[in-house]
Automatic annotation (TrEMBL):
Organism: Hoyosella subflava (strain DSM 45089 / JCM 17490 / NBRC 109087 / DQS3-9A1) (Amycolicicoccus subflavus)
Keywords for the protein's UniProt record, in alphabetical order: Zinc
Entry keyword annotation includes Zinc: yes
Protein name in the entry: LmbE family protein
Presence of the UniProt keyword Endoplasmic reticulum in the record: no
InterPro entries to which the protein is assigned, alphabetical: GlcNAc_PI_deacetylase-related (IPR003737), LmbE-like_dom_sf (IPR024078)
Pfam family, one: PIG-L
GO terms for MF: hydrolase activity, acting on carbon-nitrogen (but not peptide) bonds, in linear amides
SUPFAM superfamilies: LmbE-like
């Protein structure tokens, strides 16, 4: 199931906290839009230099450098040619005075004039403070720029949580005691189901982000990893949840 047609999304601005957020949440959308010749601008607030359980083997300078390379490879696979870094500290976004990042994001929106903006919802998907902060920044920047285009928030559907929620608990995906509210499919603004070549493309891009995705791929196996990443779902930010 796919709606609306990807072409209807027009020019896309895709704004996230860490490299791999965008590929997990909307890699298929960005790839399909890029293949159509639509403009896709992707923004990462940090380079994800703290994204490891082994900070001795992966000190921040090393991991940040590698994750930039991984992101470049993933963007090449997806066909996204405009990927930008804001270079804020991983794990520290909530402590930053929002005035500068909001102004910088507003400048990007003023330049790109997107028809569609993709970012986290208020829960950040996993309740990661960086994810939640980016959601706040993008919403404020969108308002400051005169609300160009349609702001869409990533979400999980009730059917997805019914299928994968227990697994997410086992994997420790959620970072607080809070849990996302599943959205009924009929309330979605964008619902993309990936299969075949397009799903291959997304999984290849995720595989390029080896430092982040290799453990999950090893634990789940190919079929389950593909299945868990085949849906990309967004809700209109102005609609009540």
């Amino acid at each position: 199931m796919t709606y609306p047609a990807i072409a209807e999304l027009g020019t896309i601005a895709s704004l996230w906290a860490h490299p791999d957020d965008e590929t997990y949440v909307c890699g298929g959308i960005m790839a399909a839009a890029a293949a159509n010749g639509q403009r896709v601008t992707c923004v990462s607030a940090t380079c994800g230099e703290l994204g490891t359980e082994d900070p001795v083997g992966w000190p921040p300078d090393r991991l940040g450098r590698v994750r930039r390379w991984e992101a470049s490879a993933a963007m090449a696979v997806l066909g996204v040619k405009d990927h930008r870094w804001l270079d804020y500290p991983d794990g520290g976004l909530a402590g930053i005075d929002p005035e500068e990042p909001v102004a910088r994001i507003a400048e990007i929106l003023d330049e790109v004039r997107p028809d569609t903006i993709l970012t986290f919802g208020p829960d950040g998907g996993t309740f990661h403070p960086d994810h939640q902060t980016v959601s706040q920044w993008v919403g404020e920047a969108w308002n400051r720029s005169g609300r160009p285009g349609r702001l869409l928030h990533a979400c999980l559907t009730d059917t997805h949580l019914a299928e994968w929620g227990d697994a997410y608990e086992r994997w420790g995906v959620f970072m607080t005691a809070d849990r996302p509210v599943g959205v009924p499919v009929e309330k979605l603004a964008v619902h993309l189901t990936l299969d075949g070549e397009r799903l291959d493309q997304k999984i290849t891009a995720l595989a390029a982000m080896h430092t982040q995705t290799a453990p999950a791929m090893a634990v789940l196996g190919t079929d389950a990893y593909r299945a868990s990443n085949a849906q990309e779902t967004f809700i209109d930010a102005t609609e009540p949840r």
